Amino acid sequence: MDITTNPLSAAQRPAQGGNAPAAITSDFTTFLKMLTTQLQNQDPLNPLDSTDFALQLATFSGVEQQVQTNSLITGLSSQLGFMNLAQLSGWIGKEARTTADVHFDGSPVTLFPEPAAAADQAVLVIRDMAGSVLARETLPLSGGAYQWLGADATGSPLPKGRYSLTVESSRGDAVIATDPVASFAPIEEARRDGNSVLLILKGGVEVAEKDVLALRDG
């Protein structure tokens, strides 16, 4: 019975990408079966060339090491993720500075808008979660802390809830930049989301821990 001396065809080689560990493990098992079958069925009068056999054993060893390495990396990634989560638990109760949506509860919110350097006018644009513009307020070009009172275009208080705030920088009649506005909000929860960690701010606003710009005591 003739058995090919090439244990892994192009279609059988470990795939690249997100499914690589499963593909490598599958190829490792397939390779072992093929090698065993080959040894059991080789012609005793014309045995497998020692060079070919050595190459197959080297391939076998390489696939096995890759499977073990991937398993080790997966375990380390999981451990590091839980370490990060444990460390981030110390953030709960602090205030995070982010450019996420703002939860308005009726009290003024301190914003940190940064108009474009070339702008001759800056406007705070307030939108609801449907994207509708509720109000526009002129901002100082110098930037710095700004107290947003949570009013609509008529000056009446907006209902409590979540709002999207941006600073629109203009020069002449042209808008030259539209940027999110940073603000502080209390951190109420930290939880895992796949390989990342999500922080839950007051009002249920979610933000990735990597997007936190600064921390301060609540």
From TrEMBL:
Residues 104-173 form the FlgD/Vpr Ig-like domain. Gene3D superfamilies: 2.30.30.910, 2.60.40.4070. Coiled coil: none annotated. Keywords: Bacterial flagellum biogenesis, Cell projection, Cilium, Flagellum. The keyword Chloroplast does not apply. Residues 1-20 are annotated as: Disordered. NCBIfam families: PRK12813.1. Required for flagellar hook formation. May act as a scaffolding protein. Belongs to the FlgD family. This is Basal-body rod modification protein FlgD. It comes from Fuscovulum ytuae. The lineage of its organism: Bacteria, Pseudomonadati, Pseudomonadota, Alphaproteobacteria, Rhodobacterales.
